[in-house]
Structure formats: C-alpha cells, structure tokens
C-alpha cells in the first residue's frame, strides 16, 4: 500500500485527559480509597487529591486519555504522518492547548470539541511499586456532543477511516456518537474495535456496552476486566481463556468479520480467542528494576496491535507489535515513547 492509502486509516474517539502522575505511598491510597490496577471516575471525595498530589509528591503532567494514548502509539509505530485521527472534548485552557500541541506533534490529526465553560479533564495516576491506579476527573471530556461528530469536517474523518478504536470509557460520555460510528462501520464493512477498559464499565455501563458488542470485530481488555465481564453476565467462570472464547462467540451484527477477543494479563501471556479456539502469546519479560510504571501499558498494546492490523498482518504479528509497544511504555513514565520505534 502507498502511504497515501494510510491517510486517516484509523480513527479513535475518547476522553482526552491530562495525566497528573506521581509515585505515591500507601497512606495516600488509603486516604482516598484507591486500589492499584484499577480505573475509576472521580467522586467528590477524590477532588482534593489532585492538589494534594502536586504538594506532596513529585508530579508529572503527561497528555493521556486511554484512546488518545492508543492512537498516538499506533501513529508512532506506523511512522506515516496523518495515518490516525482522533476526536474528543477538551476545555479552552492551557491544559487543552498543551494536549493539542502534544497530539499534533505526535502526528495525530486531532479534531477536538472545545468546551467554553469546563476545564480540560485530568486523570490522577497514582503509582506504587510500578502498579498504577487511575482516577479520572472527566470535566470537559464529559461534554462531547454528537453534533460535533455530525459536522461535515468531522464526519469526513469517519468516512475516510477503515478502522475504528474506542475505549469503553467513552460509553459514559457519548453512546450516540459510538452508535453512529459503529453503524457506519458495519454498513461499510470496516473494522470496529473497542476495549472493556475498566471493571466499572463492565458493571455499571453494561447495557450500553452490550448494545455495542454485536458491532465489535476486536474486543480488547485485561484479565480483571474479563473476569468482571464474566461475573456480570452470570457466566460463573474466572478462567480467562474460557471468558475470551465466550466473548468472541457473542452475536455479531454482520457476518463480515468474526470477532476476535484479545486479553492481556500483565506479565502473563496474551490470550487471543477466535473461531472458538484460544492461542496464548508470551509477552516480553522485563526485569523488575526496569519497570517504571504500568500506566498506558494496555493502551500501548492496542496501539501496537492496530499498527499491524491496518497492514493486514497476521494476528501473531499484531500481538507481537502490541507487546513491543507496551514493553517500551512501561519502561517510561506515562504513555510515552522514544522518537522512533525499533520494531522489525
């Protein structure tokens, strides 16, 4: 394929958030009732934590948001300017400007909705022993409107793309937008992918998630999310391989593609289910002393995976690229990467 064929080939939609990241202590986790390896929406009790983090700990500000991370990593892996596009909502403020600058520098074609009255969303990233916990204060990210998607210059990005990726987190913001995109994908034999994203999505946004499931050609998630999904659906199994198969066999809206389920398990092998069969792929093991934090590991995996999927590569190559990208990201703070990938 010529590089022009890759123009806008992947479109992501999600919640653009500025990560407020710090290594914290157990007292801080206890005080705000935060569990490691989890992702939640901020409640009132969490709101003071962002300020406290910046006073108490060494805080880094990193452009984040789950889908935006994945799209940036796919863009980095592809090394073809403008191969990816992204939509979401930011505030008209310095954080929003910084985010726009960061994503544009990464080569992503961003079309943000800019909310006049709400600040750009933030995500507290609490790191301890390399594990992360995410507490998202969506703010402006929560204000995305389907009207923005319907504008001709934005819908053009939907028309141009052949692959779509939306993290489950966006289900809490604009299910109407997701519906338009997934129906377009189905009607035009394009590839629609989503992520389970967090236990709370599988649990409390089960209905909207279920409406999307028939359209998902690829479902990503980690072992905790898969087990929550199983429990919520009354499957009575904790076996990740069985759960992956069951998810892949849920009804499809069209018969164009069979559904593939891809479940990561930290340092344990990646589980891929398709056609009622499971394959496991080992990850690149990393000595503990090289681990900086797991923030963005799952996002990077998806970005790497998509970068090969759009090239029409076999599933093992997609997984290999996903493992490569997440291995790079966990050796750095946040979802960041060196200038060029050395994936061959």
Salient structural properties:
EC 2.7.1.20, 13 helices, globular, five-stranded mixed sheet, magnesium, single chain, alpha/beta, 344 residues, nine-stranded mixed sheet, UDP-N-acetylmuramoyl-L-alanine:D-glutamate ligase
List the helices and strands and how they pair.
Blueprint: E1 10-13, E2 17-23, H1 26-31, E3 38-41, H2 49-56, E4 60-64, H3 66-78, E5 84-91, H4 94-105, E6 109-115, E7 122-128, E8 131-137, H5 146-150, H6 152-160, E9 163-167, H7 175-187, E10 191-195, H8 199-204, H9 206-212, E11 218-222, H10 223-232, H11 240-248, E12 260-265, E13 268-274, E14 277-281, H12 297-309, H13 315-329
Helix pairs in contact: 3-12, 12-13
Structure explained in plain terms:
Its EC number is 2.7.1.20. Residues 29-338 form the Carbohydrate kinase PfkB domain. The protein is an alpha/beta fold. It has helices spanning 26-31, 49-56, 66-78, 94-105, 146-150, 152-160, 175-187, 199-204, 206-212, 223-232, 240-248, 297-309, 315-329; strands spanning 10-13, 17-23, 38-41, 60-64, 84-91, 109-115, 122-128, 131-137, 163-167, 191-195, 218-222, 260-265, 268-274, 277-281. It has one domain (3-16, 65-119, 139-330): UDP-N-acetylmuramoyl-L-alanine:D-glutamate ligase (3-Layer(aba) Sandwich), CATH 3.40.1190.20. It contains 13 helices and 14 strands.
């Amino acid at each position: 394929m010529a590089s022009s064929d890759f123009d806008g080939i992947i479109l992501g939609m999600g919640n653009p958030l500025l990560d407020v990241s710090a290594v914290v202590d157990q007292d801080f986790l206890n005080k705000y009732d935060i569990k490691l390896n989890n992702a939640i929406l901020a409640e009132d009790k969490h709101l003071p934590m962002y300020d406290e983090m910046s006073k108490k700990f060494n805080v880094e500000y990193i452009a984040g948001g789950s889908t935006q991370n994945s799209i940036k990593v796919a863009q980095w892996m592809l090394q073809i300017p403008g191969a990816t596009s992204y939509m979401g909502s930011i505030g008209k403020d310095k954080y929003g400007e910084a985010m726009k600058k960061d994503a544009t520098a990464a080569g992503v074609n961003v079309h943000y909705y800019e909310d006049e009255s709400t600040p750009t969303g933030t995500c507290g990233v609490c790191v301890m022993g390399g594990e992360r916990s995410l507490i998202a204060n969506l703010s402006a990210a929560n204000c995305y409107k389907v009207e923005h998607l319907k504008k001709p210059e934005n819908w053009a990005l939907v028309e141009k793309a052949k692959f779509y990726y939306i993290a489950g987190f966006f289900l809490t913001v604009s299910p109407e937008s997701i519906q338009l995109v997934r129906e377009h994908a189905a009607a035009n034999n394009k590839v629609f992918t989503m992520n389970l994203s967090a236990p709370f999505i599988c649990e409390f946004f089960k209905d909207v998630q279920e409406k999307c499931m028939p359209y998902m050609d690829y479902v990503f998630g980690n072992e905790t999310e898969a087990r929550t999904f199983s429990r919520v659906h009354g499957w009575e199994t904790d076996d990740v391989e069985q759960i992956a198969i069951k998810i892949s066999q849920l009804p499809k809206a069209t018969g164009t593609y069979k559904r593939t389920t891809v479940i990561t398990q930290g340092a344990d092998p990646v589980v891929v289910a398709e056609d009622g069969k499971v394959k496991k792929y080992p990850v690149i093991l990393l000595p503990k002393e090289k681990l900086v934090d797991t923030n963005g590991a799952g996002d990077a995996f998806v970005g790497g995976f998509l970068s090969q999927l759009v090239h029409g590569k076999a599933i093992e190559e997609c997984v290999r690229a996903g493992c490569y990208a997440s291995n790079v990201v966990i050796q750095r703070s946040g979802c960041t990467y060196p200038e060029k990938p050395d994936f061959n």
